[in-house]
Amino acid sequence: METTTHVLGHVDGSSVVSNSGTKVICSVSGPMEPKSRQELPTQLALEIIVKPAEGVQSTREKLMEDQIRSVLTPVLARYLHPRQFVQICLQVLEAGESRDYTVKEVSVCVNAAVLALVDAGVPLLSMCSGTCIGITTEGKQLVVNPTESQLAKCESVHVYCLELGTNENGDIDVRNLLLLDSLGSFDESQLFKVLETGEKECIRLYTELRSVIKDKVAKDFVWRQ
Amino acid sequence: MSVQDRRRILGPAEAKPLQFAAITPVRTVENRDDGNGNKSGKESVFISTDLVTNANGSSYLEYMDGTSDQVLVMSSVFGPRPLRGSFQSKASVSIQFKEVTLEHLNTGEIKEICTFLTNVFNAVINVEKYPKSGIDIFIDLIQHSNSNPTEEANIVNILPTCINSITMALVDAGIEIIDLVSAGSKDNSVVAFIRNGHEIVGIWSDDDNVTDISKLIEECKAKYLVNKQTLVQYLK
Amino acid sequence: MTESIDIHPIVFPPEVLARISPDISLQRHLSLETRPCSRGFEEFRDVAINDGNISRYSTNCQNATTNNIIGSSLLRSGKTFVITSITGGIIEETLPANNTEDVGEEELMKLSEDTDRLCENSTIYPVVEVQRGRVGGPTDEEMITSEKLYKTLLHSGILKKTALAVSCGIRRTEEDGSVTTIYSDELLDEEKKINEANNRKWSYVLYAKIQVFSRNGPIYDLCWNSLISALKTVQLPRAFLDERAADLKIAIRTRGRSMTIRETYDILCDPHKSLPLKLNEGELCYGSNYGIIDIEPLAQLAKNDDEMDVDKPTSVLLADIETEAEESSILSTLSLTTNKNGQFKAATIIGGDSKITPEMIKRCIFLSKQRSKDIESKV
């Protein structure tokens, strides 16, 4: 996973994340004044916009937005900003998969959004990371982060996002399963294998994200030392 | 359409809808009409008012004319509910008509139906009672078995059932109306009445050569009285 | 200035509390071990499915001559009902210019099957509409549900491209004016050759119109079940070309080169003959949904003073989410699409607040297998 943060000057936070052929740029604006119909009386309102690599928004992107929303909502400390709103805009630069799939884009979008939220200084309750997994038709092998051609050979594809944090002792703490979205043909044991493998991969991504953030904070707050 | 609808999944643009070859005349018009509008057999109506639960009031009517014609109509009433914008001293009534399964009517015809029904019900609903409110009525035509896109009689066949259905939905919603509206049809015309047929609230006619209008009204009135009796019986 | 302020507790009737504070209302219900819809925690709504007599191929259809609906379903789950009507279209497939031999083409098909699994799968174009008493464009929920149905069916392999191929017939008008229609599988061998010279391929396209009434909870599973039961009733009408049109060619000359283009003409459908749509019966599966919610000790109705302190937040599993209170307060949800043997086609698990444990997922899988078995017996 390659990441860059603070790439855009006119928004509060931004990031570019790419992972095995999929590349997404994300911008975060807010917390700011919402339009009246978006306003929530007790919590921070969230708007997520996904723009595809080719063409214009369609129902495909609406479904992606919905999935990303369900991942990010529990992670944000929404009670801290009632009647305000955050806009997260995700532009897919390279899809890395055909239009019939969204797994790679969704998982990269989640990681990009988390980095951009941290860059914008929006308070989070915990961190999250996302990955995608395919199970091949022949051999029933689990492939983490499949490439476009591997994906096409998969019998089932899965997006997996985990809520993670670090406790007082510095140990990684798996808090909850945020999203599992599976399509294709699979059975119960495969589902649990995906959960197991996904957890490992998410923890790996989480440590990666953490070190990126650590470097970033060290750099941003260099004047404090 | 030049701009593709991006909010619906419409499928490939070059696909053509299925076209059925003209049927060789095996089926004839056996028992639809015996010529002078007296349909053979028993007409029957099924009424239910608890089908749609998320509306303020609703009704579902199945009308069978004893032959093959079958009209299934569902109405739901939303309101009275607050209206946005400037102050209005009367309720604003809106009626939306939709075909749930087959799509045989074009948008122009649907608009005409909506306007006609809105006029009828604006006269019947006690709109002064509900200032600053909107009453939205949705009619879903679930099935009309004799509907034929090439025939003009479609609308006339369904209108009386639509009117009956809206009346029942309004009663179910507890919205004040001055009287139960119902209608009768004859040839290509529909007349809607209230007050035991002493007052007409709407006339729809697709017939260019109506010679004797009072005769037409009398015949529609006879059917209106039957329809109204059915509604009253259900409400008892 | 020393007036004391009296604080009176306000008591709301249950239906008012449910409206103003659905979360507390739900917690109170749960503490009484019931649900706002008065079902048990793991109890589903009753489901009734039939074809609604909507399609032109329905047994009691009155209007077969003018009806263009080729498959339908009417599904009722509790108070909610879903009407699905399937219509069709025909699309000419773009073939490579040099598809001279059928054998080569089949090989090509096989080759592409190996590389891309979705290549052989087909799907339907669904439009979901939820009646909600408003006019205007589709809501997010309608768009998301349509897209989910579209994608799940595509990935499931229930509908294969081969099942939608048109085997086209020819209509002959004899000199005496009588009309006969011949289909390729009814043809004699020599005639078959003539037919194959007409090297064109068509396939059916299916559209689904799914209308939801009295919505009272998540709709995706209901729509999926309704769609599958409607697909099971689909009859594909036989299609044919007019003989005169079949060989129509126009010679044209552009930039000094001469070539022929064939007339584009309408392919017609037989009003009487039809074939059932072949689905991958073994792959059929049905959906169900679940919610997980923590029981808040504070919102509990005190049962007994002794028990008060022992209570600690535990979570409960609710099957088949219904009512606004449940839908808005339960953020951890599972939606599983499976058959009775636990072969999945889709699964969506969202952990909104309550923790989802593997045991709970196992329990949901167990329940969804039972539910699938129940629905399967009714379709």
**How much strand content do the residues of chain A show?**
35-45%
Number of helices of chain A: 4
Q: Got a strand count of chain C?
A: 15
The proportion of strand residues of chain C reads 25-35%
Unreliable runs of chain C, pLDDT <50, ≥5 residues?
A: 98-103
Biggest sheet of chain A, strands in spatial order?
Answer: 1-2-3-5-4
What is the CATH architecture descriptor of the largest domain in chain C? 2-Layer Sandwich
Number of domains of chain C: 3
**CATH homology-level superfamily of the largest domain in chain C:** GHMP Kinase, N-terminal domain
- Overall structural class of chain C, as computed from helix and strand content, comes to alpha+beta
What is the spatial order of strands in the main beta sheet of chain C? Answer: 1-2-3-7-4
Question: What can you see in these coordinates?
Answer:
The complex is a heterotrimer of chains A (225), B (236) and C (379). Chain A has 225 residues and is an alpha+beta fold. Chain A has one domain: 2-Layer Sandwich (Ribosomal Protein S5, domain 2), CATH 3.30.230.70. Chain A has helices at residues 59-72, 103-120, 148-152, 188-220; strands spanning 2-5, 13-19, 22-32, 45-51, 85-94, 127-136, 142-144, 154-166, 172-187. In chain A, the strands form two sheets. A five-stranded mixed sheet of chain A has the order 1-2-3-5-4. In chain A, strands 7-6-8-9 form a four-stranded antiparallel sheet, with helices on both faces. In chain A, helix 1 crosses helix 2. Chain A starts with a strand and ends in a 5-residue tail after the last helix. Chain B has helices at 107-124, 154-173, 213-235; strands spanning 16-17, 44-48, 57-64, 70-82, 92-99, 133-144, 182-186, 189-194, 199-205. Mean pLDDT of chain B is 83; it is low at 25-40. Chain B is α+β, with helices and mostly antiparallel strands and 236 residues long. The termini of chain B are far apart. In chain C, helix 1 (14-20) packs across helix 2. Mean pLDDT of chain C is 82; it is low at 98-103. Classes of the chains: A alpha+beta (225), B alpha+beta (236), C alpha+beta (379). Chains B and C meet through strand 1, strand 4 and strand 6 of B and strand 2, strand 3, strand 4, helix 4 and strand 7 of C. Chain C: It comes from Kluyveromyces lactis (strain ATCC 8585 / CBS 2359 / DSM 70799 / NBRC 1267 / NRRL Y-1140 / WM37). Chain C: It is found in: Cytoplasm; Nucleus, Nucleolus. Chain C: GO terms for molecular function: mRNA 3'-UTR AU-rich region binding. Chain C: It holds the Pfam family RNase_PH.
